[in-house]
Amino acid sequence: MNWSVAFEPLLSWPVLAALLVPLALLALVGLWFRQRGGWLRLLALGALGLALANPVILDEEREPLKSVVAIVVDRSQSQQIGERTVQTDAAVEGLKERLARFRQFEVRVVEAGRADAADDRTETRLFAALESAFRDVPPSRIGGAVMVTDGQVHDVPGAPAINAPLHALITGEENERDRRIRFENAPRFGIVGKPLDMTYRVIDTGGEAGAVDVRVSINGVQVSVQRAFVGQQMPLQITIPSAGRNIVELSIERVDGELTDTNNRTIALVDGIRENLRVLLVSGEPHAGERTWRNLLKSDASVDLVHFTILRPPEKQDGTPINELSLIAFPTRELFVERINDFDLIIFDRYQHRDVLPILYYDYIAEYVEKGGALLIAAGPEYAGDQSIANTPLISALPAMPNGDVIEKAFYPRLTELGQRHPVTRGLEGSGQEPPRWSRWFRQIGIERPDGEVVMKGADDRPLLLLDRKGEGRVGMFLSDQGWLWARGYEGGGPHVSLYRRIAHWLMKEPELEEERLTADGRGMVLDIRRQTMRDEAGSARVITPSGKTLDVPLTKSDPGIFLGSVETSEIGLYQVGNGDLTALAHVGPVNAQEFADVVSTENVLKPAVDATGGDVRRLAATGISAISRGISVPNVVPVRGTAEASGRDWLGFRTTDDSVLKSVSRVPLFGGFLGLGLLLLALGAMWYREGR
């Protein structure tokens, strides 16, 4: 029951004032001059004023509201170290049990810090979770909050987040020790084959000094062991081995008493960039397709092109002096002997042996391929003739011998079954229909006993494009000189740019165009696996997590030669993926996540924010006789009011609220009905009676 008095005037307050104030003044004047019946007139006026003000007694039935108390639970990965998870679970259950004893508290449990598949942030953001828990609660109903965490919180505000007691229960043990390694300076890009300078530091929270061995690995292969001094910034110089994503990893051994070895390794993702590719294009004679090759190579800013064209064969003598046949002399010795290994790719475009190159130089070219060079033959009718380069020492590097046939007929270049899976020709625009959505060609060179892989076929299903490996190098052979028809847009043209570029990059060992390739990448907290193969099936991928656990991920065919798989993970770090004899590395989650920058439990991070609210920070690790099961001590819960102390030696306080919900109201007018009329008549009658005497 809540009793109160309210006024519900019959007239507005200004009208009442206009009526009653003059009468009150007259009554007071009468009292001042001590007129007979002055007090009765004043009482009658008061009765009239009360009747017009209409006082009402209200009886309110209210239901008290509960104070809202939030338990914010840290579920970040650092909470999985040692016994912290067990301590956290036991503390949460203990708090819920203690709070349930008090009806005036509504308990909300919020878990935070666990990264999900869509979010690769791994900061422990407990205050954001606290704000979310109280988003629909009025400030007057907030009873307080308690955080169960290791103390490594990354969103501590400068000012208190709530106007109520905030407490923190810290998991872990005092005097913990951890050693970690981190990159101080790690460039995002590096030139392939060139030195790259980096710096790193080894940190020991135990304050120990000395030297440690640091293993340096690139893409999973150990390249060196460095000697580093604890606490000092150390220099590191590496060489980027390949274009694209490279994973540089530093790791140190675990020491006795260390919390975890998760942060005993650190990685840097470095994108390798090739310097300008050097290409030597030698055209045997002017023809329509020559400019197609030149335009394609010159349009790529990353290609340095050296192009020579034989304008007039030596057997054609017309009296022109030899020094007037070219602006500069053809430096055959410099190109094919002294500097041949400087080129990433050599292209012979409709070239035939005419004694421009000494016969010995073909042997140098074959040796260049065997040692890792790239050679592309764009063959025309001359390849089937007597002066074919197949009749030189270059034969050891060629994937096929000509049979002397030059097929002159219209045909559509088509992908072979192998070519539909090969990365050079897979998904080539226009290849997905029959006939292909590109123009016809009209000439092809016949060969016999081809080596390597036939990825395109031409007239009468004869080989049109061959790709082959010779020693450490690669050779490609185009058995037609009519690719320029696509470039000129004949019958709609064709995808000459993508085809030629893929061929050139495959020859130069571009990783993305390898037939057998396994790659993995992190997307948020999801590990994506991609298997590129020429086989019909890829099987499953074996994944080793950062903690050493293994799991199998099935790979499903998505396109010819492409198999994909993915798995949602909960661990941040470096994953090893294997399939057959191929392996790959992938980092899931943020690189060098802040979550593992410091894993030693601490009270210092939260203490300023907690002290500002009148709360308390204490460790859960049990001490003395207050210990409960599972080795922790959970303090008692005490309701407090207003600004009273919110913590004690073995208790935590939470505020109770005075807020309530109105259920019903009963009203009794004091001057209503016969009672009010009787009182008013009595007062007026008494005044009249006194005035009449």
Order of neighbouring strands in the sheet with most strands: 16-15-17-18-24-23-22-20
- Characterize the largest beta sheet: strand count, sense, and whether it forms a barrel: 8 strands, mixed
- The residue-averaged pLDDT reads 83
Global geometry: elongated
Instruction: List how many beta strands DSSP finds.
Output: 36
Radius of gyration: 44 Å
Please describe what this structure looks like.
The protein is α/β, with parallel strands linked by helices. Helix content is 19%, strand content 34%. The chain contains 11 helices and 36 strands. The strands form 9 sheets. The protein has an 8-stranded mixed β-sheet with strand order 16-15-17-18-24-23-22-20. Helix 1 packs antiparallel against helix 2 and helix 2 runs antiparallel to helix 11. The protein is elongated. The chain starts with a strand and ends with a helix. About 1% of the residues have low confidence. Keywords: Membrane, Transmembrane, Transmembrane helix. This is Glutamine amidotransferase domain-containing protein.
Quick take:
The protein is of the alpha/beta class. 19% of the residues lie in helices and 34% in strands.
Keywords:
single chain; 693 residues
Helix and strand arrangement:
Elements: E1 2-7, H1 13-32, H2 38-53, E2 55-64, E3 67-74, H3 84-99, E4 105-112, H4 126-133, E5 142-149, E6 166-170, E7 179-185, E8 189-191, E9 195-204, E10 211-218, E11 221-229, E12 233-239, E13 244-251, E14 265-273, E15 277-283, H5 290-298, E16 303-309, H6 332-338, E17 345-349, H7 359-370, E18 374-378, E19 401-407, E20 414-415, E21 444-448, E22 453-457, E23 463-470, E24 473-478, H8 484-487, H9 496-507, E25 517-523, E26 526-532, E27 540-544, E28 550-554, E29 556-559, E30 562-568, E31 573-579, E32 582-588, H10 607-612, E33 617-619, E34 636-640, E35 651-655, E36 660-669, H11 673-692
Parallel strand pairs: 3-4, 3-5, 5-6, 6-33, 8-14, 15-16, 15-17, 17-18, 18-24, 34-35
Antiparallel strand pairs: 1-2, 2-36, 7-9, 9-12, 10-11, 10-13, 13-14, 19-21, 20-22, 22-23, 23-24, 25-26, 26-30, 27-28, 27-31, 29-30, 31-32
Helix pairs in contact: 1-2, 2-11
